[in-house]
Amino acid sequence: MIKRREFIQSAMTVSSLSLTGVPAFALSGLNEDLLSAATWFVADTRYTASSTAARESHVQGNAVLYTDGDVTDLWTNTFASAWRESPHVVAGVSGEDVLFVLETLARDHGMTLVHSVDLPQTLPPKNSTPLTFKSWILAPKARLG
After folding, report:
1. Cα separation of 46 and 69, whole Å?
2. How confident is the model at residue 4 (pLDDT cuts 50, 70, 90)?
3. 65-88 pLDDT, tens digit each
4. How far is 50 from 8, CA to CA, in rounded Å?
5. Which residue has the higher pLDDT, 66 or 121?
6. What is the C-alpha R_g of the chain?
7. What residues contact 143, with CB distance under 8 A and at least 6 apart?
8. Residues 106/98, Cβ–Cβ less than 8 Å
9. Apex CA 107: angle with CA 102 and CA 111, to 5°?
10. For residue 93, what are the β-bridge partners?
11. Side by side, which strands form the sheet with 111-119?
12. How many CB atoms lie within 10 A of CB 124?
């Protein structure tokens, strides 16, 4: 049976490769233990590759959270209360704007960015100015020590 981390990695790689021309090495260096421990996968619906990876992840039963670039709902309804109780590992493929806000808010909860790779985006996000497209992982600092 395929493991969760293998699925997410392959979904991100295949989706990115097929839709945006991302080379496979762009996702190398991921901390597989942290990726497999991710409580949530954040998908940025402005990017086709991110949405595709999220759909595939959801089919496999993984928890997927969607954003259209505005993380207010994610923060208010999910991360703020969950991270007050216990910081959780979060992985995602999104625009740099989404990562910037989540990384900034995560710091107040003992979280840090442990993985960030720029991915080529051949098509601009829907209804938006093109931004850098990234794969990333946020994790509790305590988990790294």
Report:
1. 7
2. low
3. 999 999 999 999 999 999 989 888
4. 11
5. 66
6. 14
7. 34, 37, 87, 89
8. no
9. 90
10. 43, 135
11. 64-67, 40-44, 90-95, 133-140, 111-119
12. 12
Q: Are strands 111-119 and 90-95 parallel, antiparallel or unpaired?
A: unpaired
Domain that holds residue 66: 4-144
The values of phi and psi at residue 137, to 5°, are -140, 130
Q: Which residues pair with 44 in a beta bridge?
A: 67
What is the residue type of 131? Answer: L
| Whether 48 contacts 18, CB under 8 Å | no
For 18-28, letters b (16+ CB in 10 Å) and e give ebbebeeebbe
pTM exceeding the 0.90 threshold for the entire prediction? no
- The number of folded domains in the chain is 1
